[in-house]
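Quick illustration for those who missed Monday's session on complexes.
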Amino acid sequence: MKILIATEKPFAAEAVHGIAKIVKDAGHDMYLLEKYTDKAQLLKAVADMDALIIRSDKVTAEIIDAAPQLKIVVRAGAGYDNVDLAAASARGIVVMNTPGQNSNAVAELAIGMMIYMARNGFTPGTGSEIHGKTLGIHAYGNVGRLVGRYGKALGMEVYAYDPFITDSAVFEADGVTQVSSAEELYAKSRYVSLHIPATEQTKGSIGFDLLTSMPEGGTLVNTARKEVIDEAGLARALEERPDLRYATDIAAGNQPELNEKFGKRVFATAKKMGAETGEANINAGLAAANQIVEFFATGCTRFQVNK
Ligand code: 3PG
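Prediction with 3-phosphoglyceric acid bound:
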């Protein structure tokens, strides 16, 4: 089988070597399209591929149409909002993610961003500590759980909300207080760390009302997706509440305007960088390769997301 790694972003060399070894040992061939700049390159590269490993690369119906042999797409990472699942399912293509594999990198960045904002962007002046402050985790999946545990270790009082987790033991095991609505979470939390996926239900769902319900000094850290923010609502909240802050690794559409108007109260990394560590690349990349090899060997569809 022909397996293509297609990633606009660089992938750690060790990840590429590790994937190559797994693929070769299983008797398949690996191809690499890294740091491509044009969709035409991807359209050409997928033409005779059986499997695809991607990161946040867009796999649209057009890409799927250009890959008549394609049987499986594995997103080396958590979010799969970049894959047209309906188009894949219509062709019988299995789509998987690699849950948990890059979570630590994202969780560390979320905590780092809280400290960065608490210390006024590492500029002179009196900042504050996150110890003793309330932290709300919005969505308690793999990343949210790590942020919750790290927050506890740093002496924060941690709350979490996740409408999809019904078993309260999940929260209790981490010593985290479960709350029953997003409204309750934001109203209680000086810091909120956002980990919801971008879906039709969540897009634009975090805006003025939730932000302005936060306590004095409220800081939202978004290492999830840009699309879940109501950007006009965010700007209005920052305008009306001079104590609020916003940090993200995925710049808002109106980020230049936010930077200009709100200075150090907002921060965005130039490119999405939650999972930009060698460890995350290696963990997610090798998991993706192993999942593809197992799929071809046994038909195993564990971690399929388009069932
Ligand atoms: C994910 O969904 O796994 C993270 O957002 C990281 O995405 P990336 O691989 O595009 O950096």
